[in-house]
Model the fold of this input.
Amino acid sequence: MIDHLPVKQAPAWLMKIRANNNASFPPIKDILADSLYYPSSAFDGDPIAYLSGNFYSFIYADYGHTQHELAENIENRGFLGYKMMQSIDITDIVTATDVSPSPFTAEGEQNNPEKYKNWIKPPFTKWMVFQRNNNLDDQHGAERFSLLYICAEAVATFHALYLSNHCSPLAVAIIQPGHAFGCNWTNFTDPAKIFARTVLNNPYGQPKYILYGGQGGINKYQSTCWPAYSNKLCSLDNTSTVIWQNNS
Done:
């Protein structure tokens, strides 16, 4: 956790979870409340490593990685100082985000989600809860956090999660989103493109923060990508990611 953002108390729904095979998926609005949404995330653990305690619910979306790759990454890398205490496969969220490209082409985009159809992997959703090791304290990070990982197109996923449930994430991470050579069909950093328009025109509110970063060093990200977020708060130590706050 960092001091530049409010340090919050863990939500009750998260702390009530027990490590057993009979646990059920919490109400989706609990997962979405005060969440950090990270489209084109791959398996980047930095937002969790630095911001658990400021956030307790992390939602990752990336259509380019398989469920096997996720499992392999969790097993081999995981999150330092944490063990997975719960893991559930979810099906209804995948159905909701499995959309045709027509809504996007109707928005006037030059491309559509089928541009890289050979790269897009079979959709899946996995919900995981991680528990901090007993020998560590709050200086290491939150006692517990939730990670919802969705293999699906990021704009459609935002619609299915936030707009459909009449809410907004607390933060959005735009970190090396891959619109140049990473097989992302649209540019998340461009405020005129469909992702920014969808997030910023959400009738249920805008995120308070964006995380903006990527390759090329910290100096490359000293200007905000979305003009609505020009209040620079801080950078994440040892990364090139900068946190920007909404002007309003």
Observations:
- Residues 34 and 123 are 25 Å apart (CA to CA).
- Confidence is low (pLDDT under 50) at residues 98-103.
- Residues 12-17+26-245 form one domain.
- The longest helix spans residues 67-76.
